[in-house]
């Protein structure tokens, strides 16, 4: 039996669908950045209030992340991913009825609670299908949905938010409604289409199922492999990866949630902002695929994460050193490429030393702690903008966080050698 043909079949069945799910998830998470172009004025939200509200999502996410992923392992991916999508879609639509700072805070927090466990659940789900040697390229392909969500969503969101009035709703309200409903609908599609694993996939023959299960069974475990939840939560490597991911995510959301307003401050209209941001996000998606494939081809993860994070730091510094609008925008595009390129090689690292319940809890903990950067980054940018009237100091702090992540991940190089 042709192994490549089997994995090609699995990839065609799973990855496009999973990408659509993550695209919708990420779009609902970050569309608040475009809504802010008009929502902030309508609701009287200051930059600090917006930064706090945009980031408070990640507190809810943090609190429920590990329990959500452990539940997914127990009840199965199909039911739990469907539950996550339906509830976050409902909350996302409810964002259209935000009345002021308090309701903004509450709904963003609840959105984080509803979505908790989605990304680590998907990362864990991929380990049910792919051995470690294939995971960077497939993770990079799946997570390319993140910049694609911004590339596709930017021009669409720019157009929607520019609507003045339609059926009594303003543009920013339509943005939450039109981009929240697909999550609810897709949640029901998940119940019908997403198998819990190879053993329950009706589109695999018995021989194909066995080949996948055999490859997973023979996937060599490195020394110090953890299988229990308690061991994973105390593992120093998990803590290091959590801090590394914190630095990456600070840049991901610190730039991503504010970029529409940063570009608008350069003198562009709402619609122009959407079209301009298509380019860096589309290039970032391509970079994720290329860098993830290169990581698999070399069988190396740590340096691939470090170099990409270093590129992000350089881009962020460049956006400050070269303030001319076009050059600054290009520098931020370089930073975006570096940030997104880290994700493909990063997520296969924890699955090299975590298995079973340890993988469910450890991956969730890394994502939960890391995503606190999703609060720190946007809040920092908002506070600096309101205090200084400029984004520059915030970009330098985000650059420092990316540089620290690049250096810190290199401490795991010895672990990778022992695993390879």
> What is the CATH superfamily?
MFS general substrate transporter like domains
Number of domains: 1
CATH topology: Growth Hormone, Chain: A
Extract low-pLDDT stretches.
Answer: none
Helical segment count:
21
CATH architecture: Up-down Bundle
Assembly state: single chain
Label the structural class: mainly alpha
Tell me the number of strands. 0
Report the sheet with the most strands, covering strand number, pairing sense and barrel closure. Answer: none
CATH class type:
Mainly Alpha
Beta-strand level of the residues, as a percent range? under 5%
Query: So what's the overall shape?
Result: globular
Report the span from N to C terminus. 27 Å
Q: What is the average per-residue confidence, as pLDDT, rounded to a whole number?
A: 86
**Helix proportion range:** over 70%
Query: Rg to the nearest angstrom?
Result: 21 Å
User: Strand-and-helix sequence, N→C?
Assistant: HHHHHHHHHHHHHHHHHHHHH
